[in-house]
Amino acid sequence: MSKNTSSEIKLTPTAPAALPALKGLNLQVFVMIAAIVVIMLFFTWVTDGAYLSARNISNLLRQTAITGILAVGMVFVIISAEIDLSVGSMMGLLGGAAAIFDVWLGWPLPLTILVTLVMGLLLGAWNGWWVAYRKVPSFIVTLAGMLAFRGILIGITNGTTVSPTSPAMSQIGQSYLPDGIGFGIGVVGMAVFIVWQWRGRMRRQALGLATSSSTAAVGRQAITAVIVLGAIWLLNGLSRRYRPRC
């Protein structure tokens, strides 16, 4: 019986292995990138190149900065299988409070930023306490927070616009970093990223897990560095060509 078993094992065909090049591809990411490129090319063609102009790129980056910051924080909420409906209203409330501190109360900018950050921490901790310790669903907690924060904002501002902000406050969203600082931040960020990647690779090797070749790893990191530093160089050029007025 052992002979038959061994012969069956020998005669059993092996399934064809997937192409190694396709295993590491994240098709969802590539599809999203391709869609963004197509959209950008379409609007560039429709607007006769105005979409990729220095003025428009500067405006897009400034307008999407708040959404991008919120999205980074929401990643941690989503990966924990929760939801936060109050994040926009909380941001509006904190922005309104910062404007009141700056315009109506005349606080110095460092104090305004510090108090606003502490308020955000306390409001977030309040929502988290109900979800983590009182076991109230995050949908209910943040829905109530969304309505409450929006109502508080209307109440403290009387439904009016708080302006004009001080020049120091305006510079946060309307000024540009010098070219040298931008490149310095990019180089430091890339160095931290490369060290983190190689430490993770060494940990995988120590555990006996599969890792890509050193050539492939170095190639990916080199491409990432070129893209990041190239983007910084492009943005520095745009900032020199278009400086929005405060």
From TrEMBL:
GO CC annotation: what is one? plasma membrane
Residues crossing the lipid bilayer are: 29-52, 64-83, 103-126, 138-156, 176-196, 217-235
Task: Read off the Pfam families from this record.
Answer: BPD_transp_2
Query: Main localisation, per the record?
Result: membrane
Keyword annotations for this protein, in alphabetical order, are: Cell inner membrane, Cell membrane, Membrane, Sugar transport, Transmembrane, Transmembrane helix, Transport
Q: Which domain of life is it from?
A: Bacteria
Q: What does this protein do?
A: Part of the binding-protein-dependent transport system for D-xylose. Probably responsible for the translocation of the substrate across the membrane.
Q: Which family does it belong to?
A: Belongs to the binding-protein-dependent transport system permease family. AraH/RbsC subfamily.
**Name the UniProt record assigns to this protein:** Xylose transport system permease protein XylH
Organism in which the protein naturally occurs? Klebsiella pneumoniae
